Amino acid sequence: xxxxxxxxxxxxxxxxxxxxxxxxxxxxxxxxxxxxxxxxxxxxxxxxxxxxxxxxxxxxxxxxxxxxxxxxxxxxxxxxxxxxxxxxxxxxxxxxxxxxxxxxxxxxxxxxxxxxxxxxxxxxxxxxxxxxxxxxxxxxxxxxxxxxxxxxxxxxxxxxxxxxxxxxxxxxxxxxxxxxxxxxxxxxxxxxxxxxxxxxxxxxxxxxxxxxxxxxxxxxxxxxxxxxxxxxxxxxxxxxxxxxxxxxxxxxxxxxxxxxxxxxxxxxxxxxxxxxxxxxxxxxxxxxxxxxxxxxxxxxxxxxxxxxxxxxxxxxxxxxxxxxxxxxxxxxxxxxxxxxxxxxxxxxxxxxxxxxxxxxxxxxx
Length: 365
Hints:
By secondary structure, the chain is an alpha/beta fold. It has helices spanning 2-18, 40-45, 49-57, 72-81, 85-88, 116-124, 157-171, 182-190, 195-217, 244-247, 272-280; strands at 29-35, 59-65, 130-134, 150-153, 175-180, 224-229, 248-255, 262-263, 313-314, 326-327, 329-330, 337-339, 353-355, 363-364. It folds into two domains: 29-302, Alkaline Phosphatase, subunit A; 312-365, no CATH class. Helices cover 32% and strands 16% of the residues.
């Protein structure tokens, strides 16, 4: 019996030694850039040189998932609380503080499930600076915005970035959350597989890139963590139902402590708030929240296990055409190789392919 116990103890020791703990970087500043309805599919098809650089030099996922149903109110709440609707009680867009059916499992003094804003305030004290800038006025209702240092509605997405840069470089907030609604508007009005939608994502790629370059130029990247996130995706101008394009979302982590070239093995929307709390070194209700910190993004041993790949962008959307069309496929990654076939079979190295980031050999049907 003693021999068996010794063998088991040795086995447990080997397991514990193999699981190396990743230490929190305890960053000074976190910036969360939320792009409403920016699907993983849309980000991969758009021309996004700045996102590409952040992916290459940081950590990312393009197969994350939001919760059902893929609507904004419950998904932004889930993202910033690390909890799901049966816990936080926010069940859909009609939800209001004074008109809801489910009480939060735990609540702050305002009767709301505590969010990352509460955790940072409690963990860093009253001197902490916690800011929210939002293009969508309704996003603030799910959180204790009255106790934020700044909670401002901005008229446009561009104005959000202008104000964010002004505040960040002048006041160095601990947590800055930015909510951009423009991407959702374009998706609803023009569709999620359209040039207008891709162009909208490209506009914010440029704005994010400018912000990040300023942070780098000021020498602040080593103590600033930047997250680019989305609440849901979309298809055919909507994001209801159980479509993969509606629930698949991207995330990019860049800056302090993030390892270069990590593609996350898994990501769910409720992992964002616990990741921010862990990176900032503040406590959160781990025993209640379903979300877990994305420690993999900060783990040196995880580099290079998976790889990011863009999605080829067609010059015409899928449809029935009565006359022949000339179709081009492009991808914005410098090392991308676009392969295609015209007979419905899977492309291989021996079949037709186009090489390069702007492959434009026409395919005529």
